[in-house]
Amino acid sequence: MANRRLATQQPASFAFTADNLAWIEKLIARYPEGRQASAVIPMLWRAQEQEGWISEACIRWIADRVGLAYVRVYEIVTFYTMFHLAPVGRTHVQVCGTTPCMLRGAGDLIDVCKSRIAKQQKKVTEDGQFSWEEVECLGACVNAPLVQIFSDTYEDLTPESFNKLLDAFARGESPKPGPQIDRSFSAPEGGPLTLTEVKD
Fold it and tell me: Which residues contact 75 (CB under 8 A, 6 or more apart)?
């Protein structure tokens, strides 16, 4: 996996909205004194929901609020691929590129991204709608290959179903997450095959 670095262009400051700030204060109050650092990941997630990405000013704000050295929050942000280190498209596609997904066709999904969105990862389309990147395991290997968009995963994809998914997002729709074939969660395709009889 490539080194993850903050964007070269950064805003001068960061502030949560009043509603998000109230949410942050409630969140931090859940933790005992001296344990406020446990709130860092949900705070980062809320910041990303608000801004679309995590800026250096945001990292510094959060570090100051929970009493951590800046580098500790920076380490978290650069470790987890769910955090965007630069502005992304309104629909940012994260393609799982680990072994199970690659064996099941993730390379074809990456080819779709390269042809439909941009040849290079993290490049935003001119209309600001799409961007994409390859990430490490998204945790649904049994339903490989998959992508994550926002906080939802879309699983069991083929190039055809992935194109339809992107078409739906382009139209402003919110497609149903989860398996994109006839299965419930990670059950076998077509439904359960064992333990289907009820015994008295």
Answer: none
Looking at residue 54, its pLDDT comes to 97
Residues 6+ apart with CB under 8 A from 129: 89, 90, 91, 169, 170
122 sits in the region (left: phi over 0; alpha: psi -120 to 50; else beta) called: left
Q: Domains of the chain, with CATH numbers?
A: 18-79 (1.10.10.1590), 91-179 (3.40.30.10)
Tokens standing for 181?
Answer: 């074939």
pLDDT, averaged per 10 consecutive residues of the chain (200 residues), comes to 79 96 96 93 96 96 96 95 92 95 97 97 95 93 94 96 98 95 83 76
Q: Is residue 68 a contact partner of residue 37, using CB atoms and an 8 Å limit?
A: yes
Exposure class string for 167-193: b at 16+ Cβ within 10 A, else e = eebeeeeebebbbbeebeeeeeeeeee
DSSP 8-state class, residue 155: E
Token pair 């095959």: residue? 193
pLDDT of res. 1? 46
Sheet architecture: strand order including 130-135: 130-135, 91-96, 147-149, 152-155, 178-179
CB neighbour burial string for 119-147, b if at least 16 within 10 angstroms, e if fewer:
eebbebbeeeebbbbbbeebebbebbbbb
For tokens 């991204």, the residue is 113
The pTM score is: 0.81
